[in-house]
Amino acid sequence: MAEAHQAVGFRSSLTSDGAEVELSAPVLQEIYLSGLRSWKRHLLRFWNDFLTGVFPASPLSWLFLFSTIQLSWFLQLDPSLGLMEKIKELLPDWGAQHHGLRGVLAAALFASCLWGALIFTLHVALRLLLSYHGWLLEPHGAMSSPTKTWLALVRIFSGRHPMLFSYQRSLPRQPVPSVQDTVRKYLESVRPVLSDEDFDWTAVLAQEFLRLQASLLQWYLRLKSWWATNYVSDWWEEFVYLRSRTPLMVNSNYYMMDFLYVTPTPLQAARAGNAVHALLLYRHRLNRQEIPPTLLMGMRPLCSAQYEKIFNTTRVPGVQKDYIRHLCDSRHVAVFHRGRFFRVGTHSPNGLLSPRALEQQFQRILDDPSPACPHEEHLAALTAAPRGMWAEVRSSLKTQAAEALEAVEGAAFFVSLDSEPAGLTREDPAASLDAYAHALLAGRGHDRWFDKSFTLIVFSNGKLGLSVEHSWADCPISGHMWEVGWATQADGHCKGRPDPTLPHPWRLQWDLPDQIGPSISLALRGAQALSANVDCHVFPFSHFGKSFIRRCHLSSDSFIQIALQLAHFRDRGHFCLTYESAMTRLFLEGRTETVRSCTREACSFVRAMEDREKTDPQCLALFRVAVDKHQALLRAAMSGQGVDRHLFALYIVSRFLHLQSPFLAQVYSEQWQLSTSQIPVQQMHLFDVHNYPDYVSSGGGFGPADDHGYGVSYIFMGDDMITFHISSKKSSTKTDSHRLGQHIEDALLDVASLFQTGQHLKRRFRGLGEEDSRHRYWGSEATMTSSSC
What is the 3-state secondary structure (H, E, C) of 72-93? Predict the structure, then answer.
């Protein structure tokens, strides 16, 4: 999502006041500490896994094995082949009266050793199986005999009814690619956007890097990959996110929307009660590891480590580096309404409050007429300020308002009850959706606590939204939770009865000195300026969707990515480095990798589309070549053979070793003028888009990675709709989110018209008038009259 901006700006996190900040820790010490952190997490997770019975062979299987050994011993059979007798000899002699006890202990020890060996064998076998990535190379819609055999073996060794963290110790580690391959792929990726002279100079720097420094840096990375859980993820979290000193708002956070066409209830308190209850039920299932792990193809598990920090998590600002604070549990949420903060308990002695009880508590807040205290109304603007400034002010808050600050930072999550409505309207669908996106991404600059892992936003008309802090996890994790949150909603008031005995929500008291006022005012002005500079545009593309692309026997993601290259070229007149986020959760503690979508093949297709002499069959052939190339890059990224994370890790090692690399410095001076991401729908069983087509997700978006660039996200909603979220900076004279949106729509129709089955689309939808443009948002008149917003 918004990681491209952080990936570009992380070099500035290594500077202070224009001077280079030395990474004084020796590289071996840093690698040792990385491994120590990894093993500490492993031990904690191992204990939790053992208690909750996540082993493929449950603790009951040990009891069965022990009972079988005891029965065999009673029948004068020795399944241990003499080992149990040797174990008995090693046990202390407690006398003849305890002879039977020694036999039981020997059987228990032998059963435990045998059980552990079987489990270890199972884990090793499964890890070896999961290290196979040949299935990624299969042609679209086909499966070879080796892959079928692999799937059958995975099914045998995976066990039944896995829990969330069942596969963690069986996942392979992310491999360190060959440095020669990485440099070669990098040069190939920048060739379309560099002049001949600039490319030749870059190639010279690359060869010098390979000759002088690459082998040493690579040696340290291989050492770390052997010792630590993941050779790049902890450094990615620290240097890209936690060391960044730029404001979180717009630059790092991202947002997610509610249903596009439907609002289950217009009652703000009821919608908040239902949503909070659903999210806390999700947390309960998460704590019990009852959420099934995500499986690709129904078999290949993905890493679940990022789920651990969804709730009870806050990013705490530091002068030079932030840190993530995660609590084991929290029994309240922090609520913001009309400049006031409240602490709302979520549990009673009998357990989680009912949705109706939570609705009652939120309604009490909405009915509370008390005004905000001095400086309280705009206090949250500090979380949208540069991190160093917020860290300094927070140190005084810890002494002046420690209890209130702890109530916010220690909450399960943050809730903002907005006083304005939001969402799609019939009167002005385009402007209403754009305003909805802007409210979620930035708000008014002082009504979100951007440090929290996520903020639940409830608008006055019952619309929901989510603002997510990026450092703790990536979009698919929060997206999985969000799908459950808004898919389990009820009409009208919440179910249950009000509880008049519940104590009223506790109004937080901020004893703020007057000296803090200038800092809040400064932060507010900066946040409002940043918010006002963001140009958001959201539009649903309803002319065709995934089903049409599937009939063309193409990857839907690659189809969109190549069309985006055509749209961007028409918008800017040149090609640029393009960032597409791909997941590396096939590996233990993997996060993301970059797919560099602007390839020579994509550029050849775009030039052909703009050449009037090229025929449709010629353009279609080039389009298929570009799609195949993008698919190859995506598969390489998912299998740990991408470019950018490897170069990033090499750069960090060079900084620890104080080695100057002109090649790596040039790599991280590049700007991503087009940052893209697809938002996956992961739990299709929650949505019946065929019988209830109005209940579709709107997806989400993020800010641009470059001051003169675009941020574009998209989501496939059902089979026949794609929603795009576009962002840019109003201060740039080179970008316009609405203009790019029109180019994207035209590009998709032009590409679809290359196929015989899509030739009617261009004729049907090109040249729609202003009145007919509502089809972009509502799709059909039936939807317009039957849906409520």
Answer: HHHCCCCCCCCHHHHHHHHCCC
R_g (Cα) of the chain, nearest Å: 28
Instruction: Please state, in angstroms and rounded to a whole number, the distance separating the CA atoms of residues 380 and 352.
Output: 28
129/126 Cα distance (integer angstroms):
5
- DSSP one-letter code for 697: B
290 closest CA partner among 268, 307, 276, 302 = 307
Q: Which tens digit of pLDDT belongs to each residue from 144-178?
A: 888 888 888 888 887 777 888 888 888 999 999 99
Tokens 């059902």 correspond to: 718
Residue type, position 295, single letter: L
Question: Edge to edge, what strands does the sheet with 254-257 contain?
Answer: 506-507, 340-345, 332-337, 414-417, 454-458, 464-468, 254-257, 700-702
Summarised one tens digit per residue, pLDDT across range 546-589 is 999 999 989 999 999 999 999 999 999 999 999 999 999 999 99
Lowest mean pLDDT among 97-111, 144-158, 652-666: 97-111
Cα 233 to Cα 588: distance, rounded to the nearest angstrom: 10
Q: Which two tokens stand for residue 579?
A: 């960032």
- CA–CA separation, 670 and 667 (whole Å): 6
Q: What burial letters (b/e) apply to 630-658, b meaning 16+ CB within 10 Å?
A: bbebbbbbbbbbbbbbbbbbbbbbbbbee
With b meaning 16 or more CB within 10 Å and e meaning fewer, what string describes 668-677?
Answer: beeebbbbbb
Per the confidence metrics, is the pTM higher than 0.85? yes
686: amino acid identity, one letter: L
Of 409, 477, 418, 424, nearest in space to 254 by CA: 477
Is residue 441 within 8 A of residue 250, CB to CB? The reply is yes
The span from the CA of 255 to the CA of 240, in Å, is: 19
- Angle 144-145-151 (CA atoms, 0-180°, nearest 5)? 95
d(CA 224, CA 647) in angstroms, rounded, equals 15
C-alpha angle 237-242-247 in degrees, rounded to nearest 5: 130
Q: What is d(CA 290, CA 635) in angstroms, rounded to the nearest whole number?
A: 30
How many Å apart are CA 659 and CA 649, to the nearest integer?
14
Please list the active-site residues: 470
Contacts (Cβ under 8 Å, ≥6 apart) of 361: 273, 344, 345, 353, 502, 504, 505
CA atoms within 13 A of residue 201's CA, in its CB half-sphere: 8
> Which of 446, 481, 441 has its CA nearest to residue 336?
446
In this structure, the number of other CB atoms found within 10 A of the CB of residue 693 comes to 21
Residue 695 pLDDT > 80: no
Confidence band (pLDDT; 50, 70, 90) for 54?
very low
Q: How many other CB atoms sit within 10 Å of the CB of residue 29?
A: 11
Q: What are phi and psi of 594, to 5 degrees?
A: -95, 130
- In this structure, what token pair is assigned to residue 609? 């589309």
More confident residue, 727 or 118: 727
3-class secondary structure, 613: coil
